[in-house]
Amino acid sequence: MVETQIVGRGLHDPRLLAAFGIVPRHLFVLEQDRHLAYADGPIPIGFEQTISQPYIVALMTNLLQLKGTERVLEVGTGSGYQAAILAYMAKEVHTIEFVPELAARAERLLSDYSNVFCHLSDGSLGWQEAAPYDGIIVTAAAPKTPQDLLDQLKDGGRLVIPVGARGYQVLEVWTRHGDSFDCDEVIEVAFVPLRGKHGWDASRH
Ligand code: SAM
To answer: CA spacing 20 to 30 A to 108: which of 31, 94, 115, 195?
Structure first.
């Protein structure tokens, strides 16, 4: 997985590759799907959600440009795999999940990671209690970048988020400079919808 899917697609940060080498991805998928755990794609984890493709996890992590000293927020804990990778890349990781059953399962899997803090809440609002963050990563697709997340970035901090229509989005990287923000568009992606206040609401979209 690391050689062909991550190094083979141009990501070479030794800390990132080490994290992927250490975290046992097969523990974060459902037992019946263990044989697919290292395949080159997303895998269902129940409740209409997925564990993201390894390359996308690596790319989004890489875009945060972490050195190991940062406090990071992940919106969309899902299986807990991305949070486990972040645990090796940052000092402190807060991760928020909307679906209670997924939050409970991930919290059990992440109990050995002493720098990961799991929360059950609407992550489209961020997690004000531990803000500001050096990095925020959103692993579900938003119709628009939530201002609440931008506001929880430190000066110089980065937000990585898929934004666009249902089923088709662009991965955006926002960087805070004082009270203003730069946005770069990276690649086309397809994430499950973000729910909650700043997510997709059937009556509005
Ligand atoms: N990062 C996850 C992993 O490593 O397995 C993959 C996440 S999955 C693609 C997206 C997750 O975002 C789902 O678990 C979904 O329930 C969650 N989600 C959607 N809207 C949310 C919200 N408003 N707050 C928190 N989590 C949300």
So the answer is: 195
- Long-range contacts of residues 99-106, Cβ cutoff 8 Å, at least 24 apart: 99/47, 99/49, 101/46, 101/47, 102/45, 102/46, 102/47, 102/49, 102/77, 102/78, 103/77, 105/79, 105/80, 106/77, 106/78, 106/79, 106/80
Just list the catalytic residues.
52
Ligand 1 atom at shortest distance from the alpha carbon of 125: 23
Q: What digits encode the pLDDT tens for the residues 58-98?
A: 999 999 999 999 999 999 999 999 999 999 999 999 999 99
Domains and CATH numbers, the chain: 2-189 (3.40.50.150)
Whether the model pTM is above 0.90: yes
